């Protein structure tokens, strides 16, 4: 192990961090919930466009400090796209080769971005094949398989150190209800939910964590049954979230409640939020929003006041040909029209 190269690699990641700004926490005023304040942590503004920028930084630091990467290591990752974009950025920063293993249905815009950062895309027939293909490539090329689905929860420093949870709680300090009643998040690796849930407990906050799962995902059923062998035959249609198997980074013990969100509602909420904000958000942000509105409705019915925080996970600009294309939506998912009508009453 070349310690000099290792030190320089860590220095480069740290310097990149010092050059970076924190993401905004945006207030979403809704007159129909006068006693409930809703906030969106805007993770789309990271240099690589999603919350996976944080994860990629953590995964690289974890692998470097564990001695798993040196100057000749090819980095391999299984991804639905966002993580690969962010890892390609950090691999380029360190001068390392990077290969993303993804389903061939991955958004073309993400593939372009991975290639922009000098990464290669290795496309496979469907999502369930990405894990074994990544392990195989790593063995063949003598590379390192990052394996976000296993390491996301442990690579992130959940006690603090500027993770997303610390940032949210700090940014809420001067608000009307500084301690959120709920944080709402959708799981891909489950890592962000694990970090937030652990931090809320570690800080003795009363805040509860709601995790919202899309249609073709096993996380919701796993939360109910705790059966780790659950498998879904269909891949999730909401990019970035929902998995066909129980991922090791999904930590059920720190989740206070879960909600299953139909994909057609996620898309209706994505379009609704896009109108509210005046800019496009990604589909998993729509899933988050369905959860937020459900919690707001429940709180209002119970006569409670307070705040709710969720994430803008990425921007909608990546999905102009899919979730923002009417023909694609009608062919692949459909819009829940009665839910859309319900959303028209929310402003
Ligand atoms: C990864 C991802 C999520 C889920 O985050 P995890 O920390 O992996 O659970 C949500 N939305 C998008 C767009 C993502 O890329």
Automatic annotation (TrEMBL):
Subcellular location: Cytoplasm
GO cellular component terms, semicolon-separated: cytoplasm
Identification of the protein by name: L-cysteine desulfhydrase Cds1
Pathway field: Amino-acid biosynthesis; L-cysteine biosynthesis; L-cysteine from L-serine: step 2/2
Reaction(s) catalysed by this chain's protein: L-cysteine + H2O = hydrogen sulfide + pyruvate + NH4(+) + H(+); O-acetyl-L-serine + hydrogen sulfide = L-cysteine + acetate
Enzyme class, broadest EC rank: lyase
Record key words, sorted: Cytoplasm, Lyase, Pyridoxal phosphate
Chain's role: A cysteine desulfhydrase that generates hydrogen sulfide, H(2)S. The H(2)S produced by this enzyme may modulate central metabolism. A cysteine desulfhydrase that generates hydrogen sulfide, H(2)S. The H(2)S produced by this enzyme stimulates respiration in M.tuberculosis, mediated primarily via cytochrome bd with a lesser contribution from cytochrome bc1/aa3. H(2)S modulates the balance between respiration and glycolysis, and also contributes to redox homeostasis. Probably eliminates toxic levels of Cys (which can induce oxidative stress).
UniProt feature coiled coil, ranges: none
Encoding gene, per UniProt annotation: cds1
């Amino acid at each position: 192990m070349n310690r000099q190269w290792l030190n320089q690699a860590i220095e480069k990641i740290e310097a990149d961090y010092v050059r970076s700004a924190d993401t905004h926490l945006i207030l979403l005023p809704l007159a129909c919930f006068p006693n409930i304040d809703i906030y969106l942590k805007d993770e789309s503004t990271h240099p690589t466009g999603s919350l996976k920028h944080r994860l990629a930084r953590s995964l690289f630091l974890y692998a470097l400090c564990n001695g798993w990467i040196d100057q000749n290591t090819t980095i391999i990752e299984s991804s639905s796209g966002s993580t690969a974009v962010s890892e390609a950025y950090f691999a380029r920063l360190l001068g390392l080769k990077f290969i993303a293993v993804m389903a061939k249905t991955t958004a073309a815009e993400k593939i372009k971005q991975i290639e922009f950062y000098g990464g290669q895309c290795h496309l496979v027939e469907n999502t369930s094949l990405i894990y074994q293909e990544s392990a195989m490539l790593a063995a063949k090329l003598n590379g390192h398989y990052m394996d976000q689905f296993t390491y996301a929860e442990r690579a992130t420093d959940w006690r603090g150190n500027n993770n997303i949870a610390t940032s949210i709680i700090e940014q809420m300090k001067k608000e009307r209800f500084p301690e959120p009643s709920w944080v709402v998040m959708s799981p891909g690796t489950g890592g962000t939910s694990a970090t937030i849930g652990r931090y809320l407990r570690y800080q003795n906050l009363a805040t509860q964590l709601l995790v919202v799962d899309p249609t073709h995902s096993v996380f919701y059923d796993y939360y109910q049954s705790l059966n780790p062998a659950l498998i879904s035959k269909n891949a999730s249609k909401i990019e970035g979230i929902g998995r066909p198997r129980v991922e090791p980074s999904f930590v059920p013990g720190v989740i206070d409640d879960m909600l299953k969100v139909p994909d057609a509602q996620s898309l209706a909420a994505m379009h609704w939020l896009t109108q509210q904000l005046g800019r496009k958000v990604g589909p998993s942000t729509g899933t988050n929003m369905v959860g937020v509105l459900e919690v707001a409705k429940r709180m209002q019915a119970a006569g409670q006041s307070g705040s709710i925080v969720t994430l803008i996970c990425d921007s909608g600009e990546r999905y102009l040909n899919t979730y923002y294309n009417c023909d694609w939506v009608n062919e692949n998912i459909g819009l829940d029209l009665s839910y859309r009508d319900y959303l028209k009453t929310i402003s």
